[in-house]
Amino acid sequence: MTQSLVAGLEPPYYTAVFTSVRADDPEGYAETSARMQEIVRELPGFLGYETARTPGGIGITVAYFRDLDSLGVWQHNAEHQAAKRHGRAHWYDRYSVHIGKVERSYSFERA
Amino acid sequence: MTQSLVAGLEPPYYTAVFTSVRADDPEGYAETSARMQEIVRELPGFLGYETARTPGGIGITVAYFRDLDSLGVWQHNAEHQAAKRHGRAHWYDRYSVHIGKVERSYSFERA
Fold first, then answer.
1. Interface of B with A (CB under 8 A)
2. Which residues of B touch A104 (CB under 8 A)?
3. Which of A22, A28, A105, B80 is the most exposed place for a label (fewest CB within 10 A)?
4. Which fold has domain A15-102?
5. Residue B111: what pLDDT?
6. Is the pLDDT of residue B3 over 70?
């Protein structure tokens, strides 16, 4: 889990917004999540991610990529695809993915 | 707070991803948040939103709009701008906003 925000990126860049409904602590989830983070961090063009989850509510993860090619490498990564198959079979009741091109962004930080 | 996912939208559409770090239950936040939801729901072109927040961690809200015009109406709404000013002064340590155009999305729902 990351606690810091992704900020200061120079547009254009791409976001993959992953929203999901699942049980609170499904078996094997934490290990797979940690492994996915290891993989994605090594990918060229990966710019960072954020994740939040309301207990008993929904989860949202946003991953940032420099371009669609780097995002595609992540989406087609074999371990990632296997994790998604497992997630559909065992963890997730529902999820959605929205792939967006960011042309504008801004940040605030308290002085 | 919404518990259901925004799904089944037909691209293209726009996302405003708002990520933030703030105290857990700041004074006046819940009331302002409820009022902002009232306003945005009435706006033409508003397609829905999702929000998640890890206790002690970060919050992520994703709002969906049909086009940049409707998103701009929301961003320039006077009550919304006043709420943002108040938020910068009193609630948020940091936040970022990423405005993206979604060209591709997909959803899963367990049978």
1. 1-3, 5-7, 9, 14-15, 17, 19-21, 50-55, 57-60, 62, 64, 88, 92-110
2. 98-99
3. A28
4. Alpha-Beta Plaits (3.30.70)
5. 85
6. no
Q: Residue A18's closest CA among A45, A55, A44, A53?
A: A53
Chain centroid to CA A28: how far? Answer: 18
Say if CB A107 and CB B93 are below 8 A apart: no
Look at the pTM and tell me if it is higher than 0.90.
yes
Cβ neighbours of B15 in A, within 8 Å = 15, 17, 98, 100
Going B34 to B23 to B90 to B20, the CA torsion angle's sign is negative
Taking a C-beta distance cutoff of 8 angstroms, is the pair B38, B49 a contact? no
Which tens digit of pLDDT belongs to each residue from B73-110? 999 999 999 999 999 999 999 999 999 999 999 999 99
- Indicate the residue type of B72: G
Q: Where are the domains of chain B?
A: 15-102
